[in-house]
Every structure is written in C-alpha cells, then in structure tokens.
Amino acid sequence: MIWLTWRQLRVHVLVALVALAAIALLLLVTGLQLRHSYDTDLAGCTSGCGAAEAAFLSRYTGLSYLATGLVIAVPGLLGVFWGAPLIAREVEAGTHRLVWNQSVTRTRWLAVKLATVGLAAVAVTGLLSLLVTWWAGPLDQVAMDRFSPLLFSARGIAPLGYAAFAFTVGACAGLLIRRTVPAMAVTLAVFAAVQILLPVAVRPYLQEPVHTDVALDLSESTSGRYTLLRSGSGAEARVDVEVSRPGDWVVSGASPVLDRSGRDTGRNLACGEATGCTAPTDLHTRIAYQPADRYWAFQWSETAICLALAGLTGGFCAWWLRRRRS
C-alpha cells in the first residue's frame, strides 16, 4: 500500500520539491542580503532609529508580503490539489470498486493514504515555514508584531497544523462529494473560513489576557506608546486611546481616558489639532494584552487545535467509508 501510494504521489512530491528548492535559493540569497543590511544600518543603532527602521522595513515590504502570503496559501493549495482528489479521483475513475474489494480493508487503505500523503503535505509546508521564518527574522525583530494575524499564521509551527487540517478537509470533501472539482472548491472555502475564524474567534481566548494601567500624557496628539482618536471639537471632544506595546498583542482595542478614580474623562477634554489635549494630570487608560513571551505557547496551542480538527476529520472519513457499501 505504501509503495502504491508513493507511485501515485511521486510526481506531486517531485514538483513540490523543485518549487521548494527554487524558493529556498531565492530566500537564501535575499536573506543574506537582508541580514547584511540589518547589521549595517540597525545593529549598532542606539537612538533616533525610527527613520532607519522604517526604511529597512519598506525596502523589503514587497518580498515580505510575498513570502508571508505563500506560507499562508500553501496549506490550502495542498489541501485542494493533494487532498481533494485523493478519494474523489478514485471514485470518478471507478477504480474504488477494485481497490475496496481487495484483501486490504477500506480503513487500512484510507489510513495509509491519509498518513503518507498527509505527512508529505505537512513536511513540505514545514520546510517552507522554516525557510520563511529564518528569512524574516530581522524584519520581525524590527517590526515586533509577530502576533498580527497574517504573520502569526505564516511563522513557526502553526502552518504545519493548517496543512494537516487542509489536507484532511480535502480528503473528506472528496469522499462526501465524490467529484474532484466541487471537492476542491469546498476545500478552499472551508480552509479560507478557518483562516479567518481562528485569529478572530479562537486565538484571543487561548489564554487569559493580562490587564494593566498605562499612564498618559495628552499634551501631544501622538506618542510612541499610544495614539489619540478624537471626535468632535472643544469641550465636546471624545478621546479614546490605542496603546502600542511592541512585541505584545493588545487585545482590548481602543480604551477611554480615565482619571485617578477610574472615571471616563474623555468628554471633558478640550482637544485641538495644534495644541493637543488640555487635560488634568494623573490620567491613565486600562488595557488587556497578551505578553510577547506567550508567542510560542500560542503557536503550540493553535497547532494542536488544527491537528485535533484534522484527526476528527480523518476519523469521520474512516467511519463514513466503513458504512458505505459501494
């Protein structure tokens, strides 16, 4: 069974390896250039580095978006082109009648298929994620936003979980729909939905956020730690604060300005475009955030969720296949 599965898969694997080798070469060359630029322009910078950091990030913006998008897309593409045809193509060609009536049971046939091809999909995605994570290291160190939805899903080990899930969803769609093209469309839709839902509805709740008070100086319209959002004018101004904590993930959104006793003072502030906000002292805002040192805990948790979903989907496939007569 393993040898037969490999013969059916070998062209796909060879194409993936050739593409991966080409990407690795590109990332190696540009990654060395990126590190040289970082060592030259930023490594020794101690003060007034904002302009140099912005120039460094903008220089590699296009390639960074391309690399990030590639890691996000590859698990879905493998689910579409490897997972969806895995069973649907057998059914369309009618070869499933021969395969499912041999001495090898349907369950064993499915298990070998899912394990062999699924591990290949996870391995390809893992190698790509490893390359991109290494390549983007200096950029992530400067930007300090690894918790952002796009970067989080394209770094570390999270793409491995997504690859396993996308592949099993593709195989399940092919088993249920029994047509390759519709199964591919369903796989892509489900994978896209999960990519959107997990960062919004699951990731913020993987661990209880940390709550803290941040002291404010509203004499200026902006600072390195927070941005004022104003509406209205004069005494009717409404002031909310967006706090920036480099490396941390602020999950509370915009927060009102509070006085020493914890009352909302936003509507009592006089704010002008030129003068900033005239306000009493001892103001603060309360935020909730996920500390930067929880990054790998979140990576492992989200990967475990995706692997659990993949296991449940694979188990459903085995149950469905056993109960079918033809």
Descriptive account of the structure:
By secondary structure, the chain is of the alpha+beta class. 62% of the residues lie in helices and 13% in strands. The chain contains ten helices and eight strands. The strands form two sheets. Strands 2, 3, 5, 6 and 7 form a five-stranded antiparallel sheet that branches. Strands 1-8-4 form a three-stranded antiparallel sheet, with no helix packed on it. Strand 6 and strand 7 form a beta hairpin. Helix 3 (61-93) runs antiparallel to helix 5, helix 3 packs across helix 9 and helix 5 (106-135) runs antiparallel to helix 8 (158-177). The two termini are 20 Å apart.
Strand content: 5-15%
The low-pLDDT segments are none
**Count of extended strands:** 8
Number of helices: 10
Using only C-alpha atoms, the radius of gyration works out to 25 Å
Helix-strand topology string: HHHHHHHHHEEEEEEEEH
Overall form: elongated
- The termini sit apart by 20 Å
Largest sheet data: 5 strands, antiparallel
User: Structural class per helix/strand content?
Assistant: alpha+beta
